[in-house]
Hints:
It is built from 9 helices and no strands. It has helices at residues 22-36, 43-50, 54-61, 64-89, 93-108, 118-121, 131-158, 167-187, 192-203. It is mostly helical. InterPro entries: DNA-bd_HTH_TetR-type_CS, Homeodomain-like_sf, HTH_TetR, Tet_transcr_reg_TetR-rel_C_sf, TetR_C. This is TetR family transcriptional regulator.
Amino acid sequence: MKMEDVSKKPRKKSGRPLSFDREAALERAMLVFWRYGYEAASLQELTSAMGITPPSLYAAFGDKEKLYLEAVERYSSERCDSLQCLLHEAPTARDAIERLLQSSAVEMTCPSHPPGCLVASSAVNCSASASHVQDAVSERRDDVESIIRHRFEQAVTDGELPADTNPCVLAGFYSTVLQGMSMQARDTGGNRDRLLAIANAAMRAWPGKNG
């Protein structure tokens, strides 16, 4: 029996390569969602900013929801990486939180992007049909709070914080401050001095003799 000539087998066609820079398009989409929010960002605004057509968006990202969630994941991953580095490099937990609040005040008012924080504000006041999107964004906020809580737990173990400190409550407090700073940044058009003043006031709530 003759061996089959594999050269005559039909070859599976590979997907058509993208005609645009996917990462750059995702970055621009992220800025649109950041400025307008998930539901308010229209397909026209997204494709115009990304420099692509609707069919190209669907081919590369699936749909608007998947595009948004990927943009949030990109933003959150970078934020969590930066947060981990900041908490690791700071000599004490207090220094870490003070640096976090001050750097957030600067970042939330940076003119290179919309004011505030994408995760804190882009999925607020969504309709019931987008509840799962809000849940996904809420999980990303929880990730940040969890990272902060772990640093506080270590601070209690090391004696940096009083033994009766509740790391969960303290992490929730400073996470809430960060979310409030984001809303202030949007409401005031990026008033950095106001956010820095809020950051300084929040540090006065630090438990123990350094508060």
